[in-house]
Write a structure and sequence with these properties.
alpha/beta; three-stranded antiparallel β-sheet; 157 residues; single chain; YbaK protein; 5 helices
């Protein structure tokens, strides 16, 4: 069995029910659709974590279903900004402590404003990255949002 990631430990310390899903990942296919298929969950229930920079607000974190795209205009509006753009991949590790395909909304280097697409509350539990490739944690969305201080918003295309 794999060792617990910092993200999983933080969720468990907060007494949030958490199941883990492990899968083999492929460097050439780090898509969330692959992750969803691998752990046997619908793509609408598996959420990817995206990091973006607002003109006024700086770094923001957005969690959206893996089958969807972030609407940058809606994301900016949710964050109270005029513009929002995804950060360059080369910045991700330095900003969050995570790499592409393993970015979790839990346990980032700094606490950034975080937004979950409002569709997450349609589910009793959602999957998000546990902080490493090939590892998902399956948790209740409201409890996860409380833990990371996330707001719910309409942020997908």
């Amino acid at each position: 069995m794999a060792t617990k990631t910092n993200a999983v430990r933080l969720v468990e310390q907060a007494n949030i029910p958490c199941r883990e899903g492990f899968y083999d990942y492929d460097e050439k296919d780090l898509s969330g659709i692959h992750a969803a298929q691998s752990i046997g969950m619908p793509p609408e229930q598996v959420f990817k974590t995206l990091v973006a920079r607002g003109a006024k607000t700086g770094i923001n974190v957005f969690c959206i279903p893996v089958c969807c795209e972030l609407d940058l205009k809606k994301a900016a509006k949710a964050a109270g900004d005029k513009n929002m753009e995804l950060v360059a991949l080369k910045e991700l590790l330095g900003l969050t402590g995570y790499i592409r395909g393993g970015c979790s909304p839990v346990g980032m280097k700094k606490k950034y404003p975080t937004y979950f697409d409002e569709t997450c509350i349609l589910w009793e539990e959602i999957a998000v990255s546990a902080g490493e490739r090939g590892h998902q944690m399956i948790v209740p969305p409201e409890a996860l949002a409380r833990l990371v201080g996330a707001k719910f918003a309409d942020i997908i295309l």
